[in-house]
Structure prediction request, 444 residues.
Amino acid sequence: MENKNRFALLRRYFALLFFLALCYQTYGQGHFHIEGKIIDKANNDGSFVMLELPLANKMKKGRVKNGKFTIKGKVNFPERCFLSWKNNDTEMVLERGSYHVNITGDSINISTNSYLHNTYYQNFEKTDSIKQQLWRSKGDDFLTLLFMSRICELSFWQYWDDFWSLPESTKKSPLGKFVYQRLIDDLNAQKSETYFSTIYSPTERTKMLTALNRKNHAKPVAPGHYYIYGTVDNSFAPDKASLYEGSTVTIKMAYHGKPLKATINKYGEFRFKGKAKYPQKCYIYYGGTIQALILDNAEYNLNIRMEETATDGLRYIGNLTTDSHIHNTYFDWSIENKKALEQMDSLRDQLKTATNHEAQQIRQTMSELANSIDSSIYEKCKEVSDKHLVPLFLLRLYNMSYDKCFPIFESLPIEVKLSPTGKYLQKTILSYKNAGQVQYKLTK
Prediction:
């Protein structure tokens, strides 16, 4: 008797586990479940209730049986969609969760605990300014897209900043791509042959170029690939431009590898794409300007514009942005230590024309400053989680010491040591094995 009770208890336990797993499969992992009733005297069995997802270009349907229907499936991102039966339809926000529908005559009523659906449905007929206030106060990324998609005249200048501040995954959702395209359409409607002329400020032109760059690579960057999207703005002095259609932009590797080249097209755009087996320090050459970057499997945007500076006169200046963690960490350190690095460059220049007595004092100051910078580099090497950064930072040392650097190199993962930067670092460290410590390199 006791065994029977125990067996019955186990059966209930496994039945409960099965039920919970079924619920998870149905309502978790982005699944939705729509249950509905049709309250009508007529027999509607065999008819269909349709669910249209226009942005995903999909149509789902639920067959009516005994006055009830069910529609279920998976949705990766919240979407605006339409539920219809016969000649009646209603808009809804579809996301993970459950929905209950009652259809009576011409009325389709939806009840759900979806925050997005309820907030959107209560406010979608309000004025555009109120919608903007709502999405800014609520702080929900998809609510922002939902309200933007309802605005009749979606002005690029009025709404681009709100859109661009959204997370990348949200912007790449079907709804994000839809809103993005509408913003670009509004921008293109304002374009003319002189749309990059001086009637726009440099900030406005950068915003427009960033938006148009985005249009040309709407697809997500493939895993394990890098993409560099570049634009050239010659509007400051078009008659003195040295970068134009047919001009070449070149990337040279700092330590190993063949140069990469891209040609500027008639729209002032150029592209680099490929695979980076290892992160590498590189230099981009364009119009007499050299710009450093860490080439990694990531997305880069480079906006080049012509400007006149007090020291260099007319020249090209590039604004580079990227989602590469390695690039940003490496150059953030340079920004944090900008004052000390500039001081070292200044002392180097002074040393070239100094007398023997002056040179002795300058070298002493350089030695103290170099020790301070190197201490910061060693600390950074301990902090970084991605060890591909360690060789990049160690190669910036002013006082390269075999005793200090070789143990750090030996502790690195094998894939880092075998990378071009790792091999170059190893060669550099070993060259100092018998030299002890090399004092403040005069070139960097």
Observations:
- The first helix runs from residue 2 to 27.
- The CA atoms of residues 164 and 214 lie 10 Å apart.
- Confidence is low (pLDDT under 50) at residues 18-28, 192-200, 437-444.
- The longest strand covers residues 299-309.
